[in-house]
Amino acid sequence: MKRVFVALLVGCLALLTATATAQETVKIGVITSLTGRFAEFGEQHKAGIQAALEDVNAAGGVNGAAVEVVFEDDISEVNAALTAGEKLVNQGLPLVMGAYSSGITNPLAQYFTRQQRPFLVFTSSDDAITRPGSDWIFRINQPSYAYAQVLFDVFDAINAERGAGTLKTVVTVHGNGAFESAVADAVDVIAAERGYTVLQRQDYDQAGADFRPILNRFKTLNPDILFMVSYAADSVALMRQVQEVGLDAKVFAGGAAGFALPGFIEGSGPAADYVFTATMWTKDVPYPGAQDLNARLSAILGRTPSYHAAQAYAAVITAVDVLKRAASFSPADVRAALLATNMPDTVYGPIRFEDYQGYKNQAPLPAVAEQVVNGDFVTVYVNGQVVGDLLETPSWNAR
Amino acid sequence: MTGSPDRGPDAGAGPPPAAPSAAPGPASRALTPWLERGGAPWLGLAGVAAAGAAWYVVFPSSLSLGIGLLLLAGWASAWDLLGGWTGQTSLGHAAFVGLGAYVVGVTATKYGLAPWWSVLLAMALAAVLAFLWGRITFGLRGSYFVLSSIAVAEILRLIAINERKLTGGAIGLFIFDLDRPFGLDLFSRHTEFWLALGYLLLVLATTLLVTRGKLGYQMRAVREDEASAQAAGINPVSVKSLAFMLSAALTALGGCIYGIFLSALQPQPLFELHLSVRIALVAIIGGRGTLFGPLIGAAMLTLAGELFRNAFAEANLLIYGLLIVIVVLFVPRGLMGELRRRAVRRRYAKSAGG
Amino acid sequence: MEWLAPFLQNLTGGLLIGGIYALIGVGLSLIFGVMRIINFAHGEFVAVGMYTAIVLFQRLGMDPYVALLVAAPLGFVLGAALQRVVLHRLIDAPADSTLLATLGLALVLSNVLFLIFGAEPKSIYLPYATATVTLGGVRLPVAQLIAGAITLVVIVGLWLILTRTEVGRAVRATAQNRLGAELVGIDTPRIHALVFGIGMALAMCAGVILAPLLFAVPTVGSSYTLKAFVVTVLGGLGSVPGAIGGGLLLGVVEFLGASYLSSGYRDAYGLFAFLLILLLRPEGLFGRTVKRV
């Protein structure tokens, strides 16, 4: 009745209003970028969510009720995301999750905090989302700090293997987006804590990818470690130009998604070899069912999944676990259930939400480090342990 | 730049007519003389206020969309003071949106300044920036102003990214706390909706008053022919500068509201060229140099964008681009400008016919 | 003298990238000089050139420097067609209208690139892309040297056409005085189509040359449009030799700024120079006079 009335009254604008909800299912809201610039990642999310829904509904859903996901496409724009957030809040969904880009998730987090509704973040890694964070924002995935941290763990391990003082000095080059800047900030902090010296830090604008001036500058500094933080294409251009300029460092480290994608090796060719990269999840992580999930996601996507799909999978599993335990679907009760979350062996690692190092409601998961060896990623550092050989980087002339 | 979108017979004289939606039904006899003396646009303004209130009642769960629409309409109307009424196309108005948002953000988070002071500061800074910017470019003949407008917005974006101490850099600035003027929670979508509506009405009222005053006639004179305007004793540089300062301050005011609305400010979306283009485009489609044109343009694009969200996500620039080309080629006056031209023609035809 | 080698390295780096900016700027300046329009779609044609090279490389394995032979005529035809279909209708419209029309075309082109190729960046991997030759302590990337050589050839070719041929005389006549040119029997609409075609062919060439050096994203065009504006204003709007000087200057300013000041402001250095020129010498460093109000 209500829908008919609204449709009569406002005609085409009826699309904007909330639709009536069925009683037999439990709905979870997901705001992600299904179209636009970040559509690639939205697709990964969708695959992970599809796999997770199959699993949770086969296992009885939320106390017998089937679980359904309401997708809201933020078209990779912040205004559309806020409109979508308002819509989902007004539909009274017990839990909403999202989104890909930190630039979109940050305003969403602010909005949900103000509305006092729980919001689950599973991909955006900007530190600021959970540091300082708020009572209502929970994050499964590792914050940007973890990208830098795992690589410094590798540097420490190299120093332990080859003698203290092998690696001392760092130069950082990073894109000027929110995520890259946050990782570069983490490099500064961790380097200071662990006794490394950051000789110089340079950023570049996303539009231009001529790194030669920066690399020429770095070359005169003779750094031990070249720390690079950039997205896909920049990582390729960077490594090619590092080779062209002839910048030799003892370690090349790529602290962001761009270096962990297959495209990095394809694009850079042999220049990619020996580079260490940080990633959030691989099929080789020592968590139960990782290989299996990777195979299923590959089947859904028709290509190699990125870790974003696994993050989305973990988010749905967690959300269902939370809603099962919640006393009611009121925001306060769902929040209480989120706080009490303790899932020791998910495929994404142990998930619980803690307050530590200034973070709030953040799952304290470590990242994973890989090294490129003969055109392939080899997992070398997981969960605080070296699991492969840390190969020495030959100089460019010796390759 | 002598280009003008509006060379209708009444261009440069006479008040702009009201939007068709605002046309009164059976006007009472007492109302008619007032309407003919130029009351019609005020009635239109009241119509806009009523439409805004109606949105609030009918779509209580789509306030974000409404705020976006109202702000875009306000920016486009402010843009039109310079771009339409004075004939100086700017493709850098995002600079003022970003400036407004950042001034509120920086002063609130770093200095704990009350929002009304930051708003005044933002408007003043925008006016100063516009003044200096006008000094550099308005004295030159040719398309220098348009070119510089892109450059200035781009420089501001790079400053916002690089001056991390002030702006939080790329990671951005988060507004957690604001004073509550008159007990209003500025972070509530309800408050923000009424603020945005009030902002649009303020811009429209300012436009109406200015364009009917002396400055308005000077602006149109400069738009139509700078040399003749100069011969008539008008200083084109100062007229253009005044219009620009007014336009900039009003845009920055909307930027302040937008900053509070987002409460997480990042340089990329606030200063990007596409925002500038969208502001200009909305005004051009709706009709440059008309009171309600920018509003109509903003409403059309925003609602179409929401209804066809998926199509827009993949192809919004394609749609904008085609719209610009189509409007420039076939409807150079924009929707409202075209309607007005037809209305004027009919009036002339009628008076000529008898 | 320890600073000298890196300085020479940076200087040559700046000159090499500046050569490509010059190639982009020359087209824009030529179009402005003859047609009096500011072409906002200029950078988008650079982007189209990049994607043309990428497609030819990936599908046919064609070396990008061979792809020039395809891209240049393609750019010419596309440009001439656009002029005939869209811009020709606006020949007597206010300057703003053509500017907005080309802006619209720019948005359409970049969105079409996005729809075809997606948002992920694309690039060409040439085995010799990272090769260098060393000359007096300065490492010169082979790919950039080739790019510089091609730029030189193209610009010299353009100069010969403009100064040594009958068509070139007609182009210069149209630039000086359209009405006068028409009076002596020059088909100015044809000249306009020709000039726009040449401008777009130059932009496409620049794109092809850039393809192996950088990488292509659909939105890359607008940054090249902006660079082209800076180049032409530095050199003087409408001046072809000025654009060459402006391009080289912009390349050096950016490169040195990024090397010795802060790389984060790399794109801002050119823009500051642009505003400074408007303030101090709006006719450009190499231009003649500009009308003031």
Looking at this protein, list some descriptive labels.
heterotrimer; A: 399 residues; Rossmann fold; five-stranded parallel β-sheet; 41% helix; elongated; disordered N terminus; C: 293 residues; mainly alpha; 2 strands
Description of the molecule:
The complex is a heterotrimer of chains A (399), B (354) and C (293). In chain A, helix 3 (78-90) packs parallel to helix 4 (102-115) and helix 5 runs parallel beside helix 6 (178-194). Chain A has 2 domains: 22-142 and 286-362, 3-Layer(aba) Sandwich (Rossmann fold), CATH 3.40.50; 145-279 and 367-398, Rossmann fold, CATH 3.40.50.2300. An 8-stranded mixed beta sheet of chain A has the order 7-6-8-9-10-15-16-17, with helices on both faces. Chain A has a 5-stranded parallel beta sheet with strand order 2-1-3-4-5, with helices on both faces. The model of chain A is unreliable at 1-23 (pLDDT under 50). Chain A contains 13 helices and 17 strands. Chain A has helices spanning 2-10, 39-58, 78-90, 102-115, 144-162, 178-194, 212-219, 232-245, 257-260, 262-268, 290-301, 307-325, 331-339, and strands spanning 25-32, 66-73, 95-98, 119-121, 137-139, 169-175, 197-204, 225-229, 251-254, 276-279, 343-346, 349-351, 354-356, 359-362, 368-373, 376-382, 385-386. Chain B is mostly helical and 354 residues long. Chain B has 15 helices and 2 strands. Chain B has a two-stranded antiparallel sheet. In chain B, helix 2 (63-83) crosses helix 12 (273-286) and helix 3 runs parallel beside helix 5 (144-162). Chain B is globular, with a radius of gyration of 20 Å. In chain B, 58% of the residues are buried. Chain C has one domain (23-118, 135-280). Chain C is built from 11 helices and 2 strands. In chain C, a hairpin with a 2-residue loop joins strand 1 (132-135) and strand 2. In chain C, strands 1-2 form a two-stranded antiparallel ribbon. The longest helix of chain C is centred in the first third of the chain and has 32 residues, at 4-35. In chain C, helix 6 (166-176) packs across helix 8. Chain A binds chain C through residues 36-40, 176, 202-205, 207-210, 212-214, 216-217, 219-220, 232-234, 236-237, 240-241, 243-246, 263, 266-269, 271, and chain C through 6, 9-10, 13, 17, 118-123, 125, 127, 129-132, 139, 141, 213-215, 217, 219-220, 223, 254-256, 258-259, 262-264, 266-267.
